[in-house]
Write a structure and sequence with these properties.
35% of the residues lie in helices and 14% in strands. The protein has one domain: Arginase, Chain A (3-Layer(aba) Sandwich). It contains ten helices and ten strands. With 342 residues, it is an alpha/beta fold.
Length: 342
C-alpha cells in the first residue's frame, strides 16, 4: 500500500461565508489534513509527497476558462477598485448566457453555490490536491510492483461536487474524475464507488453519457439535503452511458446496517461491471458524530468498509474527501487503513 499527500495541501484557508441566510464557519479547514496525517504515522506507514504531473490531466476534464478562473480569480477579485471582500464568492449563479466579462460575472458563471469561496493561497492547495490523486494514478500506470495495487490519497479540498466548469460543496477540481480520465490511457474500464455522505453530482455530470466509467454513489437522500437536485435512483445516465450511473440514496437517520446494505448493492454493481481499476471516494462524514451525517457509521465500521473495498480484488485508489469531526479523523482513518492492511 502507498499513501500520498503534499506539503502544500494546507494553503487554502476559507473564511466564514454567507449561506442559507446566515454566516457559517467553514468546515473544510486545514486542521482536517493535519489530523488525517496523524493516522499513517501512528501505524508506522510512510507518506509520499506527490510530484507535479502538470495541468494537462486537469484540462482533460475541466473547462479551460473555469480552471483559469480558479487559478487567477483571486488576483482579479482584489484588483477591482471596490472592496468585494477577502475571498471570491458569488451570491448568484448564472452559468449560461454569461459572457464572463469581469470577475463578478466569472464568479457567477463558475461558482455553483455559496460553499466554495476561495482566497489567497487557495489555488495552490486546489492544484496539489489534484496532483496528489494523480500521483497515485500515475504510479498505477507505471509501477510494476504490487505496492501500487492499493493506494490512499490524503489531500484537501475534496472534489466530487466539482463539475466540468463549476465549483460547489467545498470542491473545485474533481480529483476522482481527473484520475479516472487519466487512467483511461491504459485501462478500458474504471469504476468509481462514492461513499461520501453527499451525492457527487460533479462526477455524475462528467461521466453521465459514458460507459467506460461506472459511477456508483451511496449517500444521504438529496431531498432537502445537499446537493438537493441530484442523487436520485432514477438518474441512470443517458445515451451509451445509460445504466452506468447508479445512485443508492439512504433515508436520513440510516443505521450502520442500512449503510452497508447500500454499499453491498454498490459493490455488486461494480463486480458485475468488472472494471480494471476501482476508485473509492471515501467520506468520513458518514461517521455517527459528524455534523453532516444523516447515518451512523462507527469507527469500527470504517475498517469493515475498507475490507469490503479490498475484497473487490481490483487495483484500488482511495480518495479521502468529506469528514468534518476533526478530532475523530485520525482514529477513523486508522481504522480504515487497518482494514486495508488485513
Amino acid at each position: 500500500m502507498k499513501i500520498y499527500s503534499h506539503r502544500d495541501n494546507n494553503t487554502h484557508q476559507p473564511l466564514p461565508y454567507f449561506s442559507y441566510g446566515q454566516m457559517r464557519e467553514p468546515l473544510e479547514i486545514p486542521q482536517r489534513l493535519e489530523e488525517l496525517l496523524k493516522a499513517p504515522k501512528a501505524l508506522g506507514l510512510d507518506v509520499i509527497n506527490a510530484k507535479d504531473l502538470g495541468i494537462n490531466p486537469i484540462l482533460e476534464v475541466h473547462d479551460y476558462g473555469y480552471v483559469e478562473f480558479l487559478k487567477n480569480g483571486y488576483e482579479e477579485w482584489k484588483a477591482v477598485e471596490e472592496d468585494l471582500g477577502a475571498q471570491v464568492q458569488t451570491g448568484i449563479y448564472v452559468p449560461d448566457n454569461n459572457p464572463g466579462l469581469g470577475i463578478m460575472a466569472k464568479a457567477a458563471k463558475y461558482q455553483a453555490d455559496d460553499s466554495a469561496p476561495f482566497g489567497e493561497g487557495s489555488w495552490n492547495t486546489i492544484y496539489w490536491s489534484a496532483q496528489t490523486a494523480l500521483a497515485a494514478a500515475d504510479a498505477l500506470l507505471n509501477d510494476k510492483s504490487n505496492q501500487s495495487a492499493i493506494q490512499v490519497c490524503l489531500s484537501r479540498p475534496p472534489g466530487h461536487h466539482a463539475g466540468k466548469k463549476s465549483a460547489g460543496g467545498f470542491c473545485y477540481l474533481n480529483n476522482g474524475a481527473i484520475i479516472a480520465q487519466y487512467l483511461r490511457q491504459k485501462y478500458a474500464k474504471i469504476a468509481i464507488i462514492d461513499t461520501d455522505m453527499h451525492h457527487g453530482q460533479g462526477v455524475q455530470e462528467i461521466f453521465y453519457d459514458r460507459k467506460d466509467v461506472l459511477y456508483t454513489s451511496v449517500h444521504g437522500s438529496p431531498i432537502n439535503f445537499y446537493p438537493a437536485v441530484t442523487g436520485h435512483e432514477f438518474e441512470k445516465g443517458e445515451g451509451e452511458g445509460y445504466g452506468f450511473n447508479l445512485n443508492f440514496p439512504m433515508p436520513h437517520g440510516a443505521s450502520e446496517e442500512t449503510f452497508f446494505k447500500h454499499v453491498d448493492q454498490s459493490i455488486d454493481a461494480v463486480k458485475l461491471y468488472n472494471p480494471d481499476v476501482v476508485i473509492h471516494i471515501l467520506g468520513f462524514d458518514v461517521f455517527e458524530e459528524d455534523p453532516e451525517a444523516r447515518c451512523a457509521v462507527s469507527t469500527k465500521g470504517f475498517e469493515v468498509l475498507a475490507q469490503n473495498m479490498k475484497a473487490i480484488d481490483k487495483s484500488l485508489i482511495v480518495l479521502v474527501e468529506g469528514g468534518y469531526t476533526v478530532d475523530k479523523l485520525n482514529i477513523n482513518l486508522q481504522s480504515f487503513l487497518k482494514g486495508l492492511m488485513t
